Amino acid sequence: MTKTNSKNGKPDLSFLDDPALTMLTSGQVADLLNVGINMVNKYIRRGHLEARKLGGRWFIDRGSAVAFSKRTRKVGRPIKTDFSE
After folding, report:
1. pTM of the complete model
2. Burial grade of 9 (CB within 10 A; 0-12, 13-18, 19 or more)
């Protein structure tokens, strides 16, 4: 996983600023999505993230990871939609 920003305790996502970086590691994507690596692997298996396995390690397409992070809800309690109770 990536380093933590000492100012706010959140993951350091500065690697996203590098336009030459087209593939991300599972750890980097886990930090981006604020989930564990096992969940990233589950997203890969389900086809939510475009990835390639090289030498036993998954590398995820940067565009796929960023797009997925924008369309998924952040970690937290589910929003209650049924207020009839």
Report:
1. 0.67
2. exposed
Kindly report, residue by residue over 40-80, the tens digit of the pLDDT: 999 999 999 999 999 999 999 999 998 998 887 665 556 56
Instruction: Print burial letters for 35-68: b (CB count within 10 Å at least 16), e (below 16).
Output: eeeeebbebbeeebbbbeeeeeebbbbbebbeeb
Rounded CA separation 37/32 (Å): 11
Find out whether 23 and 61 touch, Cβ atoms under 8 Å. Answer: yes
CA atoms of 26 and 65, how far apart (whole Å): 10
**Domain locations in the chain?**
32-57
Helix (H, G, I), strand (E, B) or coil at 27: helix
30, 41 contact by CB (below 8 A): no
* Cα separations in angstroms, 10 against 1, 5, 70, 80, 82: 12, 6, 18, 27, 33
